[in-house]
Write a structure and sequence with these properties.
Blueprint: E1 4-13, E2 26-36, E3 41-45, H1 52-59, E4 67-72, E5 75-76, E6 84-87, H2 99-103, H3 105-109, H4 117-127, H5 143-155, E7 161-165, H6 173-190, E8 193-197, H7 201-207, E9 210-214, E10 221-226, H8 241-253
Parallel strand pairs: 3-8, 3-9, 6-7, 7-8
Antiparallel strand pairs: 1-2, 1-4, 4-5, 9-10
Bound molecules: adenosine-5'-diphosphate and magnesium ion.
């Protein structure tokens, strides 16, 4: 059985939750179905406002769905649970806590007295290249470093699932590429599954085992594109034919470019 199963997920926000002028219920998510395996990275691409964050929040059990099924690790999700880490565009660190105490914060929330947590926090900081910074305060770190801390914080309780909502969107291009390689390494070491929302087609493909392209609202999955780039990826992978083909397919599904004429199809296989 796949690790994650999303079946006919649908979310309608009733009009009374919207502004007074709203005449119709708002269909944020219209029948989304997909599956993913343990350790798989799935990228979610789609126009702004199409319902990607809504979908992540439903999968996290933070938002009720109107209909459909969500199963994670064999459990049907019907409310908040602990076995995931959520990472947002803004690192959202607590300025008064040191780096290591920020990483350990979920253990406080979970009221865990796991004696190994501190060692694990140090190991995670080492993994993301922040050894030596454990006593620093967030304001002493660059944006990229802060996002590394938030990655460690999301991983401290060893979740099987990472939900990432445009996590590197505010970073410069080079830092973003470094973070992409870091995320691939984290996946290798933790075997966590990752659902990764991004606006960058190139980032979506570079990271993913498959890319889901959503239509504009109400969001439907316009394309479920397997990415066949193997597990050993490096920045030069971006310049391969397979990569550029995937970029073309995703761009077509997003309506950015017109579909290629069918003549060349089949000869690429
Ligand atoms: N709590 C809410 N109540 C009413 N409408 C909402 C709520 N949350 C999101 N929406 C609406 O649902 C749509 C999808 O939003 P969102 O999931 O944030 O899109 P995305 O993350 O793809 O940009 C938007 O039109 C947004 O206004
Ligand atoms: Mg969003």
């Amino acid at each position: 059985m796949p690790f994650g199963i999303i079946k006919n997920a649908r979310k309608v926000f009733p009009q009374n939750q919207l502004s007074k002028g709203a005449k119709q219920d708002l269909i944020a998510l219209d029948d989304a179905s997909f599956e993913f395996e343990e350790g798989e990275i799935v990228s979610l691409l789609g126009p702004s406002g199409c319902g990607k964050t809504t979908l992540l929040r439903i999968i996290a059990g933070l938002l009720s769905r109107t209909s459909g099924e969500v199963t994670i690790g064999g459990k049907s999700i019907d409310g908040p649970y602990e076995d995931y880490g959520f990472i947002f565009q803004s690192p959202g660190l607590m300025p008064w806590r040191s780096v290591i105490d920020n990483v350990l914060f979920p253990m406080d929330v979970l009221k865990s007295n796991d004696a190994n947590a501190k060692t694990r926090a140090m190991d995670l900081l080492q993994l993301v290249g922040l050894n030596g910074f454990e006593k620093a305060r967030p304001h002493q770190l660059s944006g990229g470093m802060q996002q590394r801390v938030s990655l460690c914080r999301a991983l401290i309780h060893k979740p099987k699932l990472l939900l990432m909502d445009e996590p590197f969107g505010a970073l410069d291009e080079l830092t973003r590429m470094e973070m992409n390689d870091l995320l691939l390494r984290i996946r290798r070491e933790t075997h966590a599954s990752v659902l990764f929302v991004t606006h960058s087609i190139s980032e979506a493909i570079y990271l993913a085992d498959k890319v889901l392209v959503f239509s504009s609202r109400p969001a439907r999955i316009a394309l479920n594109l397997p990415i066949d780039l193997g597990n050993e990826r490096s920045q030069s992978t971006r310049f391969t034919n397979a990569f550029m083909q995937a970029e073309r397919r995703a761009s077509e599904a997003l309506g950015i470019i017109k579909p290629e004429v069918a003549v060349s199809q089949g000869s690429q296989a």
